[in-house]
Every structure is written in structure tokens, then in C-alpha cells.
Write the C-alpha cells for this entry.
Amino acid sequence: MRYNEKELQALSRQPAEMAAELGMRGPKKGSVLKRRLVKLVVNFLFYFRTDEAEPVGALLLERCRVVREEPGTFSISFIEDPERKYHFECSSEEQCQEWMEALRRASYEFMRRSLIFYRNEIRKVTGKDPLEQFGISEEARFQLSGLQA
């Protein structure tokens, strides 16, 4: 997937759902744990050197797995390349849990599944499709048949 660098930098400056200084180790062999400012914006996880305003990198949180490793640590890996893991170290177990939950909820697919679930729940209660008023109820992306388990 291609990204426009200026657009990514602009996105990295947007208000974050979560931000903290965490220990981070990249996927390369021999990579060491470094302190990084980590910032979750929509479905991107930006990471910065602690003394710089521009991100060092970004992870698109789609088709990824967030897994607890040791106490106070978690990793992010991607379905296409499960051996390529990014490791994060939190200051507490509570912080680790908060980050893992936020990262799991950040993907487009999670939001789509939630929308479909709540759409169906509202339809059961009211008998009406809540998306109909927006003129998007027939779009394929909002259909249960397009949902993969």
C-alpha cells in the first residue's frame, strides 16, 4: 500500500486516541528496546523519538494481531508476516491492557463489525434500518453477507 508522506505527517499531528512513552523494539534481529512516544490516531500507530516532532514510522493496524507477551509487554504482528513482530513495554500491567484493547478496536474491520452488529440490534428493537436515513443502507460494506468470520 502506498502512502503520501505529507498526509501521514499531517495525520500524525491529529489528536490521539491514546499516546504514551513506551519501550519499543522493532522486528529486526538484534533490535534493542528504545523509548518511543507512541501515538494511536484512528487506525495508525505512529512512533516518534522522544525529542522529535516528526514520526520515525507508522504501523497501519489492519490485519494484525495484538498479543500479550510477558507481564507488562505486548506485541503487534501482521497476518501476512507473523514473524515480523513489534514489541512494546509498558510502565504497568494496567497500561498494557489499555493499549492492547485500544489497538484491537482501532482497525477498520473491527469498526465495521461493530456497526453491523449494532445496526442489526437496532433493527430488531425498532423494526427500522438506522442507516436508511443516510441513504447508505444498501452499500455492500454495510451488509452482513460481506462480513467474513
User: Anything to note?
Assistant: The mean pLDDT is 88. The helical segments are 5-12, 93-105, 108-126.
